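As described in the Methods, two query proteins were run sequentially through the folding procedure within a single session, without resetting any intermediate state between them. The first query and its resulting structure tokens are shown here.
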Amino acid sequence: MSIDYTSPSTQFTFDVNTSPLFKKDQQNYINILGIAQLNTLENVSLLDIFLSMNNVVEPHYHQNAGELVYCISGVATVSILNPITKQIQNYAIKPGQVANIPQGWWHYIVANADNTHILAIFDAPTPEVILGSDILKFTPSNIMAQTYCINENLWQQTIAPVVPSTYIGPANNCNQTNTVTPNSLQTQPYYNQHPYPYHYPVSYQHSSYY
């Protein structure tokens, strides 16, 4: 993309606080910065994420961008499904620490403390996303039942509470008593993570954040 830096419409600054993507409540919300907000951006964008304890950025993947998660305050556990080893890798990050998520890898983020604030930084001007809630709600129940040999009625009952485009869960009216703790995640320290190969091809086209 060619940018005309002499144009009067060229933007060099933006207030991310004015750009909400999703809001669950006063403690759990996401703001966004991409090329739609700041037109001089090239291959970079970000999500500014605020979470209270035990809230979860729902399982999802980005088919067009890798993601670097940087912790500003609180504690967050970044969990990644490694498609090569078929294992979930959990990384607890504190302020000043990061976790790296390769393009197209299934992942989710759990806040392990109140006032958790993280930045998700992408190597694309418009990061696209496929959300777990959308997969659950929009895949026909008969296909799920036939494919995985499950009772279709039970499947429908199970996913009935799922709201498409959840982004941050659980819902405020959720009656579950189960909570996620760092110990239950068997968290690995951030410094144990290994470099990830970027040979995992992704060619899907789906919805974007915009």
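Immediately afterward, the second query was submitted; its sequence and tokens are:
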Amino acid sequence: MKSVRTEYLRPAAAEDVPALLALRAEAEGWLRTKGTDQWSDPETGERAISKWRASIDEGRAWVVVGEHDQVLATVSRGPVDRDFWRDADRPEAALYLYKLIVAREASGRQLGTRLVDWMSRLAALEGRTWVRIDTWRTNVGLHAYYERLGFQHVRTEAPPHRRSGWLAQRRAGELALPDDLLPVGSHVGAATLEEVPHQRAGADVTGDSTSGNDTTQHETG
């Protein structure tokens, strides 16, 4: 008999910051065991905390929690990164996905795939055409993971001050697991997709990007 899943998605809150930092630290260690130099410059201290809090305050960060309210995964959206995406790419036509992290204890639940599907649904709701990512240029395993999820490689950019730059996109509204969608909720109850915070197309194509390099680990098993 198939077990009933209890995890659900909700907006991140200020009290989630320690758990988010722990997820990041765990991801750094796990990536090192995979032979990649991604996130070889750990984010710690006040800089990391301030970035998480800014994402939370702006309604750009989400967490997946389990039956004991433990944080199992996170994903954020952010502004277009102008080191990578050009005017000719129509930046306003896309939702930009960052900071996708899944706890090792949740490996095998396909939370990474389901979070990408969540962002795809949100992008479609906002009238966008694409979900876009940038990943570490040398992390070929991660490139293959996203390609299996339907992302198409656009090009690779290599600005000298960045290690990310492998660019890919997937059509908004496309779902890899249409029969296994993450339920959306909050501390006060469930919500429909239309009730969650979202933006009009074009609302995140200005401002400084502080989230680059942060599309990250994929789950195994």
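The radius of gyration is 16 Å. We note this only descriptively and draw no conclusion about the first query from it.
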